[in-house]
Amino acid sequence: MASIKDVAAEAGLSVATVSRVLNDHPSVSEEARTRVLAAVATLGYRPNAVARSLRTDQTRTLGLVISDVLNPYFTELARSVEEEARALGYSVIIGNADERPDLQDHHVRTLLDRRIDGLLVSPTDGGSPLMLDAARGGTPMVFVDRWIRGVDVPVVRADGQSAVQDLVAHLHGLGHRRLAIIAGPAATTTGRERVDAFRAALAAYGIPLPDAYTGQGDFQAESGRRVTEGFLDLPEPPEVVFAADNLMALGALDAIRARGLRVPDDIALAAFDDIPWFVHTDPPITAVAQPTGALGRAAVRALVDRIEGRTPRSVTLPARLVVRRSCGEPPATNRSKP
Amino acid sequence: MASIKDVAAEAGLSVATVSRVLNDHPSVSEEARTRVLAAVATLGYRPNAVARSLRTDQTRTLGLVISDVLNPYFTELARSVEEEARALGYSVIIGNADERPDLQDHHVRTLLDRRIDGLLVSPTDGGSPLMLDAARGGTPMVFVDRWIRGVDVPVVRADGQSAVQDLVAHLHGLGHRRLAIIAGPAATTTGRERVDAFRAALAAYGIPLPDAYTGQGDFQAESGRRVTEGFLDLPEPPEVVFAADNLMALGALDAIRARGLRVPDDIALAAFDDIPWFVHTDPPITAVAQPTGALGRAAVRALVDRIEGRTPRSVTLPARLVVRRSCGEPPATNRSKP
DNA sequence: ATCGCCTGTGTAATCGATTCCACGAGGAGG
DNA sequence: CCTCCTCGTGGAATCGATTACACAGGCGAT
Question: Which PANTHER family does the record match to this protein (chains A, B) (predicted)?
């Protein structure tokens, strides 16, 4: 593969001049410019990003470590992150943690070794020493969706509190009183916050959230199934199951289906994180929708601000409730066929 | 960030010796080894992958350019690719083409600039000059899922022919005679092959595939909706719609639903590419399932073979039919409630 | 005519690693 | 005792870019 020296030789100029043309430095003669450009074209030369990064100490690359690529929420997030980064002149390298702290660490480490300019993380756990050190050590970093307390890192996330209130109001209005939740891992902020928001919203109606009605999941489908089976085995099973993410909702649906029960007639189901597929499930699932694209874009902007020396700001965007049929009577607009 | 020089100074040795310890070169004294390791630990030193790549001319990184991250098929593929690559000591950088040739080129170009060791591509089109040049120019490359004719690049893909035959047999057995297909872009191999396989399978039953029953889609949901509306507007609409990918099947389902029609009673639906969500749609969708994980792993192995000087082999794995309820009477095993 | 400045160019240092080559010490064999 | 190896180590070149610095030539001002 041709290097800058080959181009210089071909153009009959020094590598310095070639470099200047390529980085359009002002003081280059028109003559030199055309000669270099011609040489570049005939050789099919492309600058070596590795060498350039070594010299300039910047890679124009962002790392994104997400918890689970198979979760449509995160893939949409990844897509919007890449889009915004590209618009700002950066590339993105995605690392998938699969909800495993060890894998998360693996990706953070290799990303750091590659000297990425900044890191976007949706932490799977409370934060390994590695990640904490990186954050404190000055690596530009922004948390997205999930975050870690006690580190001075901007957070870009959605606030589901009012949407969860709306959900509980909706459920209460439908006559449901025994409401259960499948929680996410307590090590994640989203795992805890969603339960807290749910409990608070229930409290407003004087409804308690007993331990038996809070199951511990891990944001994966299988745990949703397991927890839901536990709920159904209870002497007095809940009337509603609220899953703290879409994958666990899917598992819950499986478990309910396996018992020959029907949604919403026998038991209602709702989920946090809306995804396109929820429109097409049987029945369509009521969900709290995050502004995923906006989240990804805001996170990139915050990170790039940090990288380029501006002061990044944390951002919190509201989530909203999308009512479908999985909790009972359809919303008025859909009632063409009662 | 500490460099190898700092480690050398801390250990009171030369950079050469430090480097040898780090790459466990045989001729290093035990004494030197422990001193270096101690220095590495106190400084928290991590080798700079950029510098190392520049010197060794290898990045231990694979590029993966996929057509659409939002398609669960491709995200599963990406996951298995990353997994196998990691097992073999490589990292993966994913580029999402969003079914756009210009974006595909953008990603190929930046991956090449980064001097990745090899490229895995599922081409969105017939192949841009850039990609063709790279292939011919000696960049290790393997096509996965889709491929391009006339280039000497190994292909790892699934053969859907017999599964499509099974599908047509299933449909024919259910009494369907007017079968339509939503094709993928003619510029992609999968776009063409799936139509060809379908037409061939129909021919075996003496059923033609008229032009009116072959709609042109682009592998995205919206095109599935549009084409299906066209089918439904026909004086004699088809009894079955077969979508050449899962996203277009989703669009088709939308269009059918919007007319107030029911699947499978009013019209049957089947799809190429099975995904977990198809179990939960209303009704569950009959689909041709690819061995996605195996495909990703085989592709990585072929690419790494090529990179490390062995001779890579093309691989074709069989797809299989998964019958659910979207085409009519459920399979016998599921018939608990007739 | 001289000075200084501006423009365009080249030489060489530099980034952080790897690795070839040279060298000194020590041991084995004659 | 001398020679020859082997082993462990360090010096320095190298990868492909960027960029500080030096410098030559031209031009305007004095």
Answer: HTH-TYPE TRANSCRIPTIONAL REPRESSOR PURR-RELATED, LACI-RELATED TRANSCRIPTIONAL REPRESSOR
